[in-house]
Amino acid sequence: MVKFAILGFGSRGQMFGSIIKDDNDAKLVAIADPVENNRERGKTAYGLTEEQCFKTADEFFKQGEICDAVFICSQDSQHYDMVIKAMHLGYDVCLEKPAAVTIEQCESIRDVANQLGRKVVLTHIMRYTPFYSCIKNLIATGALGDIVTINQTENIAYWHFALSYVRGPWRKMEDSTPTIIAKCCHDLDIFMWLMNKKCTAVSSFGKLFHFRPENAPEGSAYYCVDCSPEVREKCLYNSYKIYPERMKRGVVGGTARFIGRDIVEVIDNKEDVISKCAYHAGNNAIDNQVVNLCFEDGSTAHLTMTAFSDDCYRTVKIHGTKGEVYGNFDEGILYYTPFGQKTVKIDTNSKEYNSLGVNLSGGHGGGDTYLYYDFKNYIIGKSQSIARTTIDQSIESHVVGFKAEESRKNGGVLIKIGE
Which domain CATH number covers 45? Predict the structure, then answer.
């Protein structure tokens, strides 16, 4: 029986909690979270006692080593302190992305893990999905030849961006991480994994394009409660509509803290940033960014991150010297074309690719569940999956992300990696 603790029991922490609960060979023995409703949920939904629910991570750490490994699912700025303390206490760690808020902290986590011999896995869950695992296998078998370029678009969705990056925990980059890392370190990790070679240079352009005071609807107020019904009705980001509507579909964008509370009352009382107009929220998270990567053999990759889509989805196109493959991640369908031959449609939703039979419509295309079981296998010494990444490999994509932000802030200047 593998025993786990979860530090940060919001939406991500509770998601991993539910996977542990369904695993007969594992047990959740402790959680830590400052939000009372989240701790109460640990007791009512996961059977924990009062003594197993801690208000802070430090209270948990004072107990010493009481389980086999910890999941760290707290806010970005809290990751570094928690993972360092956990490793020194003897814990292996599954660390929510991004690893930390600076390159120096990321590299320190890597170095401490190597010095202490700890197993640390970042939640780069996209590489664990049947969709991307199928692409990796196509590359590994030589079906595409040498990879020349990869193009990927991360469509965040207008409502998701508003929840998470305008009125949510990641709205101010100085309090979390640059948006390209907070949201797209998955995508950068996919590039590094599929290419399997060193990135030598990066450039990037982007800005906060839309969510600024000058773009507020005519007649709008600083707070939603003060807007007239007519203005509110026409606004895509009306808090009275977007929060109750999206929370009915599941917790997203840091909304776990509102479980058990009257969301309308929160908005009425102006007590939280969600009550503010989306154009006056004081955020600086980038809503539109492109990143270009050059690899050691001259191959390239391009990432587009945009807030302006109707829903959340990724599209990817990979060009090789012998073939190409295209797909929409949410659909789970790939179109593989060997040059000079007919296109083959690959349904990665089928049992052939979904060996665990997990629900691919939730949990990032099944990636969360696959990552969980691979992490468990890692810490108990079982064989690894094709997707497993070491802390050394994971930090490489983080470095690329921080360098991309450096380029963006300097007008898109080319930044060499490793110099």
Answer: 3.40.50.720
